[in-house]
Amino acid sequence: MKEHLDQMNQARLAKSEHMAALVQKILNMLSDDPVAPYVLREEFKQSWNESYGEERTSKEAWNLLRLAMRHGKIGRTENGLIYPRKDIVR
Is 12 part of any domain? Predict the structure, then answer.
């Protein structure tokens, strides 16, 4: 049973990291200026739709941004604005 749970957790983590990588590609295309969360959500949604050809609702776009926040790909200023952290290419 423990082995099965470990495999499920590994699969869930791999899926989360894969989605975070897709989100990061979109975030790299956006401006890194701090904006209100709803502005970043709408810019992200539009870029996702143009890049991947998949229509996302505002709720789905926000959930993907929350995933990026959990992975440390979005920063927050003192006054509540958020901004995408760019991927460093080496």
Answer: yes
Does 24 fall in a domain?
yes
Model confidence, pTM: 0.83
Domain span at residue 44 reads 2-84
| CA neighbours closer than 13 Å in the CB half-sphere of residue 89 | 3
Domains: count for the chain = 1
Q: Tell me the C-alpha to C-alpha distance, in Å, between residue 39 and each of 8, 31, 45, 61.
A: 35, 11, 10, 11
C-alpha torsion sign, points 22, 59, 45, 77: negative
pLDDT tens digit string along 22-38? 999 999 999 989 999 99
d(CA 17, CA 14): 5
Residue 15 lies in a domain: yes
> How confident is the model at residue 81, as a pLDDT?
96
- Residue-level pLDDT at 35: 96
